[in-house]
């Protein structure tokens, strides 16, 4: 029996989908534990590129079960389009994909509330993906939400109406100009609910407990990244769930002492989409080059991602919060072509040199302190073994390992499954 955990260590978009896909053949069950359709996990294999939003990244492998855990929020409309998008792959979704009854539902009015809240914030907006994530988690913790299990209740429609009416009053309270046609959105929502009903709803914590007793292996799949965690991220510029290791326990009902390996995924540089502090952001040619070579555009919103250098202060913080046991470095190929690479090893915080992430990392408080390392020119995308990698890249890897005290076990040199080097 194994329960391992995989999560992102930066501001999301680290390439978790690819790594889960690479690892899935080793696990019986892949279980998503938080987030919702704000995520976009990109998988590339056999010349196919596919983006998953709510569905776990093990779905393309033959012999595993994919679970959407209680910590996830599901938008039936987005979910239906995800299911429709998978039709061409002839997957047996009825037996491969199961959903926790305790997962919360994103209503059309949650999306509208997200839009109203962001509009009302003006310049202080979070830069939300506007998928209704925040309002849905607010209803969850406020004990007002609708869950997948409620779909099976006779009075589901009445419950829906009561909550949607409340949301409409709240939208009016914001006093912003949001145009919408609710009857149309509701028609789409209830049609999508009928599709959702074709899948199995389960008590996933019990299912996972029994699976562990039977010796099944489980990989818990996180979404977003540790610096977007609602408690430990750059609040308020975060998402509304616990993206860190603790989220796997609450989002699946798995006990902390059952988790063995914690795989931490990070990019060889740093990106962020949406608002909020980003000390190592590069506004010049280097940042542009990372964005261009790395194709740094959001897979959900299409927004250009902000780019910058690797921040070891933030990485160490994320490793500590999550108890990471193995690191996986993504997109090393994007850094080919730089003469020198900058790595942030400390912050100047209000005039003092510090090595930890303080309460407030806004630009006016924090200036990164960099170490410069040699770059490499070679194209890595066709390389298949660790030995063949340029010496300067190996130095870069070893520098990071020494600084954070955790080994890098996988180096990714391109988006395809095959472009993955085991160290
Ligand atoms: P929300 O979760 O859609 O409300 O977005 C809150 C913040 O998290 C915004 O800055 C988003 O850009 C960011 N965010 C949410 N999901 C992701 C993701 O999957 N990757 C990267 N950033 C994300």
UniProtKB/TrEMBL annotation:
Which terms in the Gene Ontology molecular function aspect does this entry carry?
Answer: adenylosuccinate synthase activity; GTP binding; magnesium ion binding
**What pathway is this protein said to act in by its record?**
Purine metabolism; AMP biosynthesis via de novo pathway; AMP from IMP: step 1/2
**Which example biological process does GO assign this protein?**
IMP metabolic process
Q: Name the Gene3D superfamilies for this protein.
A: Adenylosuccinate Synthetase, subunit A, domain 1, Adenylosuccinate Synthetase, subunit A, domain 2, Adenylosuccinate Synthetase, subunit A, domain 3
Residues bound to IMP are: 13-16, 38-41, 129, 143, 224, 239, 303
Quote the Pfam families the UniProt record gives: Adenylsucc_synt
Query: Which residues act catalytically here?
Result: 13, 41, 140
- Primary enzyme class: ligase
Question: Could you describe the subunit structure of this protein?
Answer: Homodimer.
Q: What is this protein called?
A: Adenylosuccinate synthetase
Source organism: Flavobacterium silvisoli
In the UniProt record, the gene name given for this protein reads: purA
């Amino acid at each position: 029996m194994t329960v391992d955990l995989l999560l992102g260590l930066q501001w999301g978009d680290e390439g978790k989908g690819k790594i889960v896909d690479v690892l899935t053949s080793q696990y019986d069950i892949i279980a998503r534990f938080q987030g919702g359709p704000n995520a976009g996990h990109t998988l590339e294999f056999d010349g196919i590129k596919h983006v998953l939003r709510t569905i776990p990244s093990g779905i393309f492998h033959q012999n595993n079960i994919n679970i959407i855990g209680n910590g996830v929020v599901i938008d039936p409309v987005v979910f239906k389009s995800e299911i429709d998008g998978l039709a061409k792959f002839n997957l047996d979704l009825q037996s491969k994909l199961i959903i926790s009854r305790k997962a919360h539902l994103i209503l059309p009015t949650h999306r509208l509330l997200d839009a109203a809240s962001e509009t009302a914030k003006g310049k202080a907006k979070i830069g939300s993906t506007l998928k209704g994530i925040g309002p849905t988690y607010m209803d969850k913790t406020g004990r007002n939400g609708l869950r997948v299990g409620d779909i099976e209740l006779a009075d589901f429609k009445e419950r829906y109406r009561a909550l949607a009416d409340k949301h409409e009053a709240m939208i009016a309270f914001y006093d912003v100009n949001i145009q919408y046609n609710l009857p149309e959105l509701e028609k789409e929502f209830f049609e999508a609910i009928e599709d959702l009903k074709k899948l199995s709803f389960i008590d996933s914590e019990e299912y996972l407990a029994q699976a562990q007793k039977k010796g099944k292996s489980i990989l818990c799949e996180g979404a977003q990244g540790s610096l977007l965690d609602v408690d430990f991220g750059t609040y308020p510029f975060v998402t509304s769930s616990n993206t860190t290791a603790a989220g796997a326990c609450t989002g699946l009902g798995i006990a902390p002492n059952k988790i063995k390996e914690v795989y931490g995924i990070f990019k060889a540089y740093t990106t962020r989409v949406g608002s909020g502090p980003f000390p190592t952001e590069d506004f010049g040619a280097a940042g542009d080059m990372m964005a261009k070579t790395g194709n740094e555009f959001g897979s959900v919103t299409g927004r250009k991602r902000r780019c910058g250098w690797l921040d070891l202060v933030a990485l160490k913080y994320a490793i500590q919060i999550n108890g990471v046991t193995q690191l996986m470095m993504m997109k090393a190929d994007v850094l080919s072509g730089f003469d020198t690479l900058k790595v942030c090893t400390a912050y100047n915080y209000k005039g003092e040199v510090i090595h930890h992430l303080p309460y407030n990392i806004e630009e006016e408080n924090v200036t990164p302190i960099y170490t410069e390392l040699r770059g490499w020119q070679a194209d890595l995308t066709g390389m298949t073994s660790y030995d063949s990698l340029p010496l300067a890249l190996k130095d870069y890897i070893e520098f990071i390992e020494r600084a954070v005290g955790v080994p890098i076990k996988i180096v990714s040199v391109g988006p395809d499954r095959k472009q993955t080097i085991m160290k």
